[in-house]
Amino acid sequence: MYKFTALRFSLDNALFPSIIEIDAKNVTYYKGTVVGYQSTVIERDNIASVSISSGILFADVVIESKGGKRRIATGFRKSDTKEIVRLLKKAI
User: Fold this and answer.
1) N or C: which end of the chain has fewer CB within 10 A?
2) What's the structural domain count of the chain?
3) Three-state DSSP string of the chain
4) What is the CATH number of the domain that holds 74?
5) How do residues 32-62 score in pLDDT, each as one tens digit?
6) Residue 20 pLDDT > 70
């Protein structure tokens, strides 16, 4: 399993950083809240596309499922987003 945690320096992640976990079957996205996390699970076979939206300091991962749902995980290291995309493109 691979686990990537967003940087706390980004605005959306200052108190509760986002987390992406990738295993053989699923991608799980956790967004921190005041009380715990909200999680979204996407089956790797159900991923239609994955891309990077890069800023000056941070990068975002955009994952779109075959059903048209779009999840944007913000505030990751650019090197982490490249690795996430590399891992997920194997499933597409």
Assistant:
1) N
2) 1
3) CEEEECCCCCHHHCCCCCEEEECCCEEEEEEECCCCEEEEEEEHHHEEEEEEEECCCCEEEEEEECCCCEEEEEEECHHHHHHHHHHHHCCC
4) 2.30.29.30
5) 888 888 999 999 999 999 999 998 888 999 9
6) yes
